[in-house]
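hey so u asked for the seq, here:
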Amino acid sequence: MSTKNISVISLSYNDEIYIKKHIDNLSFANEIILIDNNSTDKTAAIAEELGATVIHQKDTKRADIIKSTIESTRNNWLIVINTTDHLSEELINELTREIDKSKTAASYFTGQTLFFFGKNNKIWCLFK
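ran it, C-alpha cells below
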C-alpha cells in the first residue's frame, strides 16, 4: 500500500467521540489536517495528540478555509472528508493503487453522499 503524496483534510465540530477512530482510519496518509469549527469539546486536543495538524476555523467561511488549506497542503493527492466518515479498507486500497499508477490527467474529482443515522454526509476526494 502506497503512503506517498497523500494529504487528508478533515472537517470537524465536536467530534471527540469519533476523532481517534477517524485518525486511525487515515493512517495511510502522510499528512492529516483537521479543520475544527470551534468545537467546545476535546476534538482538537485529541487530534493534535494523535499527530494531526489542527486549524481553527474561527469566523472564516468554511469554503474559504478549505480553499486556503488545500493550497497549503504539501502533497499531490488530497482527500477532503468529515470526521464522522470512515473509509473502508477496500476504498483505501483502491485509492493507494490508483496513486501508484501513471496518470495522464492533471486532476480527478469524486463526490459521494452517504446517509448515516439520518444525517447527510459528503465525501470529496480531490487529486491535484
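Residues 7 and 78 are 5 Å apart (CA to CA). The first strand starts at residue 6 and ends at 12.
lmk if thats what u needed
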